[in-house]
Amino acid sequence: MDLTAPETPPHTRIIGRYYAAGILGHGAMGTVFRGQDPLIGRTVALKVLSAELLAAPVPGGDFRKEFFREARAAGQLNHPNIVTIYDVGEYDGLPYIAMEFLPGLTLREYLDSGVVFTLRRCVEIGILLARGLDYAHQNNVVHRDIKPANIMLGRKGTVKIMDFGIAVAPHAAGKAHTDARAGSPRYMAPEQLGGTPTNAAVDIFALGVTLYETLTGKNPFDAPTFRETAERVLKLTPPPPSSLNPDVPPQLDAIVMHALAKNPARRFPRIKDLGHALVTVRTVIKKAELAAENGPPPTADSDSAFDAALESGDHSLDQLELAGAGSRLRGEIREHLQKLDITRDLDTDEHDHLGMLLRLYLLPAATDLFHEGDEAGYLGLLLEGRMSVTRHGKPGAPPQRLDTLTPGMVFGEMALLDPAPRSATLSADTPCQIAVLSRRHFRKLCREQPALAVKLLLGLGGVLSQRLRRASDKLAGRL
Question: Does 92 qualify as catalytic in the annotation?
Answer without folding.
Answer: no
